[in-house]
Amino acid sequence: MRLIQVFLLVFVLNLNAQNNYPQDYFDNPLEIPLILSGTFAELRSNHFHSGLDIKTQKRVGLKVKACADGFVSRIKISHYGYGKALYVTHPNGYTTVYAHLQKFAPEIEAYIKKQQYEKESYTIELFPSAETLPVTKNSLIAYSGNSGGSGGPHLHFEIRDKKERPINPMLFGIEIADTKMPYIKSIYAYPLDENSFVNNSNKKQKLRLIPLKNGDYTVENIKAIGNIGFGIETNDRQSLSANSNGVYNISSFVNGAKNFELDFRRFSFSETKHINQLIDYEHYVSQKKRVQKLFKINNPLSIYKSLSNNGIVKVEDSAYLVYKVRVADFKNNEAWVNLNIKGAKSIETKTEKQKTTPYYIKTDQTTNLKEDNISVDFYTNTFYKNFYINFEVKNDTLTLHKNTLAAKRKFKITYDISKYKEADITNLFIARLLGSKKHPVYTSTKREGKKLIAHTKTLGTFALATDSVPPSIKPINFKKGQWLSNYRYLKIKIDDGLSGISKYRATVNGKWILMEYDYKTKTLIHDFKDGIITDSKNNLKVIVTDNVGNNSTFETFFYRK
Prior knowledge:
Elements: H1 2-18, E1 36-38, E2 43-44, E3 47-48, E4 52-55, E5 63-65, E6 70-77, E7 84-89, E8 95-99, E9 101-104, H2 106-119, E10 124-126, E11 134-135, E12 140-144, E13 154-160, E14 166-167, E15 183-191, E16 197-198, E17 205-206, E18 209-211, E19 217-235, E20 249-254, E21 257-263, H3 275-278, H4 281-287, E22 292-293, E23 304-305, E24 313-315, E25 320-328, E26 334-343, E27 360-361, E28 367-371, E29 374-378, E30 387-388, E31 391-394, E32 397-400, E33 411-416, H5 422-425, E34 428-434, E35 439-442, E36 445-448, E37 451-456, E38 460-466, E39 472-475, E40 489-495, E41 501-508, E42 511-512, E43 516-518, E44 523-527, E45 537-546, E46 551-559
Parallel strand pairs: 19-26
Antiparallel strand pairs: 1-4, 2-3, 4-13, 5-12, 6-7, 6-10, 6-11, 7-8, 8-13, 9-12, 13-14, 15-17, 15-19, 16-19, 18-19, 19-22, 19-24, 20-21, 20-25, 21-23, 25-26, 27-30, 28-29, 29-33, 31-32, 32-38, 33-37, 34-35, 34-38, 36-37, 39-40, 40-44, 41-42, 41-45, 43-44, 45-46
């Protein structure tokens, strides 16, 4: 009876928490059934997903509607990230966000293009006043697309509060069909200090996960001693989608008492970077799988709830503990893991010695490492823990530990390039070397006098690289001297094989024209409906510059009437 009362209490509390948000205020942003390819707060590279990714039937151009009355308060167009994004602020203080758009409603599109032509820039960020672009509930504001960092056609949809914190839109009554329970891929045990062991080992252990017929799981019994943490790899699916998505809540219990909870209902953008401390970062880098740690160590995330001993399980000799994990989605479909722990002193008495180097990083101190022409500056609170770092310099190659530790903030790498000839310096950049073949990948590099400087959050191997090859420019849908009267678009492919595209500029008869750049297809596109091209004979000039300053110029002419 007492157990039933506890569960009823938890259910009522959760229900009340959800009902704090208006349930009938926001309508769906699309005119089709909402099926998700991405859920709120699911784990992404270096961040939590801040909205719902709504499928658009594998196509672009679906009508996107304003979810409620309000006004367009922000418009941002970028090559990457959200691509074309629209922000609508509502009288109740919330803001809805619509991203990866193809284009905007005619009035909004005209407003944006006027500003783009005035600024001579495709990328732009605007903050219209409340009177400039008002919208009404269910009015057309845009068309769905695949712009920016989108991996396929879909609408990214968010709801933010007055503090710009994203909130799970399903809390506002946005309905997604879901009767499927989450599923669990793997579970790990972590001895957290030199005096802690699991199954006679001081190392992380992958535990044998046994699925049950009812969808729950059990784990082969373990023997442990000391301070133990657990980690879980888990996902969810909705009724109408096969996508592997994030879950809504993860809780753990020791002998029936809750000792840990992750609640994915809201977060702030300032904290999302700490995702790499939530997951087993080293495991992710090596295995490309995200194991969420069910214990908290030096992590300020606000999604932690109901912590007892920070989720760490203290196992004493001869103790018997029952450890359970509950994984739930928004619809309260749940999967349970049951694990029995027997406290037993370890047969193994030796632990792996910590590898030491001459260089030790303390989180509360700044550290400068320097050898030959290379220096590295770590600021306070760059990392989550103190550690011995591997720092080696050989010629122009910098070995800076392995990429096994997550960083909170960027550190600085500086190369003194005084020894290089002036003619060679312009083509140099700092590259991160990846893979067994040490392939150089451009790291954003600035030149200050005789120094090259890069800021990064990623450890690993770096070197100086040279890019002396200018970008390539090729027309896609037209030839020199061709009549293009019946063409809607002018398309050009641009590419740079090493340092990447930095900027581009296109003119016709000396006048700047707007060309959208899709980095995924490496394509520049001009829409003749802009009406900027009015002459019969048109001289086209395109200049493309890469990230080290190499540039190419493409010139041709075409006819149009």
